[in-house]
Amino acid sequence: MAKTNNQQGFSLLEILIAFSILAFSLSILLNIFSSGLRRTIISEEYQQAVIIAQSKLAAVGVEKELENAAAQGKVQDKYVWSIHVQPYSVENMGLDDDSVKLSPYLVTVRVEWAAGKNDRQLELSTLKLAKKS
Questions:
Q1: Which of 33, 74, 75, 131 is the most buried (most CB within 10 A)?
Q2: Residue 74: Cβ-neighbour burial (10 angstroms; 0-12, 13-18, 19+)
Q3: SS3 for 52?
Q4: Which 3 state secondary structure label does DSSP give 6?
């Protein structure tokens, strides 16, 4: 009587190849999710920096008079902001200095923060007007 050898199941080689494909696929998916999370965190940091810069720009000329000055500070022990206010020449706008009753000031706000190994920064600028003294 001849015995027939019917194999059932997978060979060791087939199982190793299947595990290799699974491990490779999982590592790619994990990399995609972690890079997406990193981008989300960076986006939130930039959004917070924009909010800080806009609030500092809005406060200039309201809390104290516009003048040639600089100030700096820290928010949330992470974001360092600096404000620079300097007179802006009306000649740059094509106007005569004697005919203008308002003085323009260039206001620049820079927000800097550390993000891992990289230092990041954001800068916003605007012109604000004040009465001539």
A1: 75
A2: exposed
A3: helix
A4: coil
Sign of CA dihedral 48, 52, 53, 57: positive
Short-list 120, 130, 129, 131, CA closest to 53: 120
Residue 103's pLDDT band, with cuts at 50, 70 and 90, is confident
In sequence order, the β-bridge partners of residue 17 are: none
Give 132's strand partners.
none
Q: Which token pair is 82?
A: 């600096």
In the chain, the amino acid numbered 68 is N
Are 50 and 125 contacting, i.e. CB atoms less than 8 angstroms apart? no
pLDDT digits (tens, 9 = 90+) for 47-58: 999 999 999 999
pLDDT of residue 115: 80
